[in-house]
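Quiz preparation item.
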């Protein structure tokens, strides 16, 4: 017997037994359809650096944006849209130091619309409101020491001005006939000036 015959005698049955057809595992088809993607060892590190660089650039851009807005708003006016006299009074005081004597509940003919801070050497505040449907504006600023007290009301056409508690008030009304009524913004009970 030669070598070839010996190996075929015992080897073929062993190979036939161990190399027969078997069913493929269920997960094999899934692995064939969606193979794993092997990443290069340095790709995670590159991703981390790219993310850190992007965040740093975004932070610098945000800082520059905020600085440009702050510089631009120095000369601009701050505005606050609100109809609540208590909130407007608090907002004006917080942004200018001026205390406008707005009653908690103004006269029924008064409808508050907004307040605005006007930048300048001495900040002033403007309060926009409607008087019986007509536009009116009250401008308040810190009074100069030589201004006269409240009893000296100066009125001309659609404007009135006075000084009270160290503050100068200028009232403008779209309808000159409503000027006295416009005073009800601060004089809630209908008190006269």
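Solution:
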């Amino acid at each position: 017997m030669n070598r070839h015959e010996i190996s075929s005698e015992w080897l073929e049955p062993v190979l036939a037994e161990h190399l027969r057809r078997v069913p493929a595992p269920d997960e094999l088809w899934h692995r064939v359809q969606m193979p794993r993607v092997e990443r290069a060892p340095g790709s995670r590190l590159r991703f981390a650096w790219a993310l850190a660089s992007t965040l740093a650039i975004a932070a610098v851009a945000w800082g520059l944006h905020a600085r440009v807005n702050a510089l631009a708003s120095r000369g601009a006016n701050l505005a606050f849209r609100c109809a609540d006299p208590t909130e407007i009074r608090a907002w004006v005081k917080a942004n200018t130091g001026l205390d406008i004597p707005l009653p908690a509940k103004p006269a029924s003919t008064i409808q508050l619309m907004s307040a605005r801070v006007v930048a300048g050497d001495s900040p002033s505040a403007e309060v926009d409101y409607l008087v019986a449907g007509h536009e009116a504006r009250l401008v308040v600023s810190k009074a100069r020491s030589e201004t006269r007290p409240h009893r000296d009301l100066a009125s001309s056409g659609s404007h009135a001005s006075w000084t009270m508690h160290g503050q100068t008030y200028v009232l403008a009304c779209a309808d000159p006939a409503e000027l006295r009524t416009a005073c009800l913004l601060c004089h809630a009970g209908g008190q006269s000036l």
